[in-house]
User: What shape does this take?
Amino acid sequence: MAFKESLQSFCKMVGDKTQETVQVTKLKSKISTEKSNIKTNYEEIGRYMYKKYKEEGEASTDLVCFFESIDSSKAKIEEYDLEIKRVKYED
Assistant: This one.
């Protein structure tokens, strides 16, 4: 009888831990989703401000360095794309 009770106790403990793990995983997933939503909104704010800067040519001096960095990165991406095409067509 002691073995059966011990086994039942162990199974209950495993079940409780499993349920706890599932709940924690679900909550972590929800947290991740919310963080992703925040990141998306930050990105949209940035896109809006960058577009406004490109259209109007004016922006806060605090933001201009970021916009210039974006322009520089876009130019590098174009260069890298051209290099990829060059490498592919050399073969």
In short: The CA atoms of residues 15 and 21 lie 10 Å apart. The helical segments are 2-56, 61-90. The mean pLDDT is 87.
